[in-house]
Design a protein that fits this description.
Layout (H helix, E strand, L loop, with lengths): L6 E3 L2 E3 L5 E6 L9 E6 L7 E8 L5 E3 L2 E3 L5 E6 L9 E9 L4 E2 L4 E4 L4 E3 L2 E2 L3 E7 L12 E3 L5 E9 L4 E11 L3
Parallel strand pairs: 5-9, 11-17
Antiparallel strand pairs: 1-2, 3-4, 6-7, 8-9, 10-13, 12-15, 14-16, 16-17
Length: 179
């Protein structure tokens, strides 16, 4: 039996703390004789594994309907019947998260004609940078550019690092016609 399970034979419970015994079954033989059964139960310990992993900052892992993220980084899960013996499996999770970040500034209010600089700061080695709606400079990998917008504008920068983590930030520049 699997650890934690109970097997009932002739009304007697066999489990991890009671693994052997004899059961007399009256009139069970062909000629109406009593039968004596010797019972030995082998208890199978559940397989146990530890999962340690480092995830991207916003990743979520769901196991058995339980959510693991930056706020819930560890736990013990019982996977019913998941072992090769049909017993439950125990999985301990211990997660860490990469400390990656992208910052392109605080939202700003400017007067029409003012110049504003958009200077991304990256807490990662970018494999790819994607600006939306377009980069504030001719090259998407630019790390500083000053612009003179005539209308309100928003920029969003999405950075992908070498391990595939995706981080983004945005900034809105509000242009006023009033002095």
């Amino acid at each position: 039996v699997c650890e934690g399970d109970t097997l009932f034979i002739n009304g007697t419970a066999y489990h991890a703390n009671y693994t052997s015994g004899e059961e007399l079954i009256p009139n069970a033989g062909i000629a109406g004789c009593d039968s004596l059964i010797r019972i030995t139960v082998t208890v199978i310990a559940p397989p146990f594994s530890i999962i340690t992993d480092t995830l991207c900052p916003n990743d979520v892992l769901t196991i058995n309907g339980h959510r693991y993220d930056r706020d819930n980084r560890s736990g013990l899960e019982i996977l019913p019947g998941a072992s090769s013996t049909g017993c439950d499996s125990l999985v301990y999770l211990s997660l860490s998260f990469r400390a990656l970040w992208v910052y392109i500034g605080e939202d700003r209010d400017i007067i029409l004609g003012d110049t504003v600089c958009v200077t991304p700061q990256l807490g990662l080695v970018p494999q790819n940078l994607t600006w939306y709606p377009y980069p504030p400079c001719p090259d998407s990998f630019c790390l500083s550019n000053c612009i003179q917008p005539f209308d309100n504008i928003s920029f969003s920068l999405t950075a992908t690092d070498t391990s595939g983590c995706v981080i983004s930030d945005d900034v809105t520049i509000t242009v006023s016609n009033e002095n």
